[in-house]
Amino acid sequence: MVDIAKFFLEFTVEESCGKCVPCRIGTKRLLEILDKITMGKATLEDLDKMEELCDHIKGNSLCGLGQTAPNPVLSTLRYFRDEYVAHVVDKRCPAGVCKNLIRYEIIPDKCTGCTACSRNCPVAAINGEIKKVHEIDQEICIKCGVCYDTCRFDAINIV
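RESULT FIELD:
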């Protein structure tokens, strides 16, 4: 739901005529907070700021676009707050769509050391010897999913 709110807000930011400050600047600031959330860099205070900003935009915009722009954010915050909290506190995306919050991990019991994942990794983020359990270097991993798609033994888990 966080990603859906972000999608609608991106549209609103693009469609704003720019005449009034709450819509022109407020929606951009709101989108920046949503970006922070989907990148795993937000705090719980950001959720409170976002709600306050939504109320300000809604109450002070001149036209219907600005007055309704915060509605997807407010609705998702009201009914799916746990997803926002998961992004902020647990640094994970329950829907698995926020790329920065996805982690690929190798399951040691299933890894045969076939090296298929490491050979196909575009950034050489997977290390290990033949016939031994491999590891993914999370600092290097670009979260492209090639390892997950390549593994024939279901030894890679999306966390």
